[in-house]
Amino acid sequence: MPYKPHVVYTLCSNPCPLVSAMDNLDYIHAKLLKTHAITEGPRKLVEIWLRVHGLRKSIEEYVSRLRGSKGVSVTEVSIGRYSALLRLVLDTGLYCASCADCCPYTSQPPYTLLDSIIVTPRGVLRRHIVLRRSDDNIVTRGCRVIAEIELEDCGFSLTPRQEDALVAAYREGYYSFPRRTSLKKLAEKLGLSVSSLAELLHRAEAKIIESFLYTELPHLMLEHTEPYPAGSSGKRRS
Questions:
Q1: Which residues share a beta bridge with 58?
Q2: What's the structural domain count of the chain?
Q3: Residue 109 included in any domain
Q4: Distance CA 140, CA 54 (A)
Q5: Domain limits at 183?
Q6: Do 117 and 104 form a contact (C-beta atoms < 8 A)?
Q7: Alpha helices of the chain — where are they, by DSSP H?
Q8: Is residue 114 part of a domain?
Q9: Rounded to 5 degrees, what angle do the CA atoms 149, 122, 151 make?
């Protein structure tokens, strides 16, 4: 039976200063936005852009720990009450020997799309969209699969009618606070019944929320998911 496209989550537990700096901090994680290799003479560096989320106190402590780590340069691009944008330069020669050929920030197995990378206190959580499943490609040293979901079950794709309804609702101020229009007025403008429009918006909102949670906060959605046994390919969700 042909392999269907899946979303596969892997957790890398190899030593990393970005992970260890989060140790014992309350509610904190970071989404990797960009990586770029830099060569300066004999030194091999990597530029990393992170969007860090958490309590302000935890973010400030995280930045302080990163600054105190040897071979890590930190630039605070912006910092707010619950998030911060950081640019890091990491000396790979000091930290990356254990996973030089399978870096969780840069390596991308064949037949996969590396959809998102989240740094958590437990390790680096990666979300892959996989066309052809091979444990040899997905599971590398220090890495394990913790969840696998059929792509068609992720529900992140809106129908054209759902897209039209959502865009119209936003433009007309249905999602403003306070609202600038009512569901009844919006339904009249779109030529729909109130119940039909309500269902379209509800289904669209549910898909968007699920997509956000499993893309931006997968460590919270999957935190109780047990790792897959070797060779397992069954579907599992928390």
A1: none
A2: 2
A3: no
A4: 29
A5: 160-215
A6: yes
A7: 17-20, 56-67, 92-95, 135-138, 160-171, 183-190, 194-216, 218-221
A8: no
A9: 10
Q: Tell me the two tokens of residue 159.
A: 């129908």
List strands edge to edge, sheet with 112-120. Answer: 72-79, 83-91, 43-54, 28-40, 112-120, 123-130, 6-12, 143-150
Of residues 234, 222, 215, the one with CA closest to residue 123: 222
Separation between Cα atoms, residue 126 and residue 237, nearest integer Å: 16
User: What confidence tens digit (pLDDT) does each residue in 208-225 have?
Assistant: 998 888 888 888 888 655
Residues with Cβ < 8 Å from 201, sequence gap 6 or more?
162, 165, 166, 169
Pick out the chain residues at pLDDT < 70.
1-2, 40, 95-103, 106, 133-141, 153-156, 223-238
* Length, in residues, of the chain: 238
Per-residue model confidence as pLDDT tens digits over 120-169: 998 999 888 888 766 556 666 678 888 888 877 666 688 999 999 999 99
Q: How far apart are CA 113 and CA 9, in angstroms?
A: 12
- 43 within a domain of the structure (yes/no): yes
Same domain, 97 and 164: no
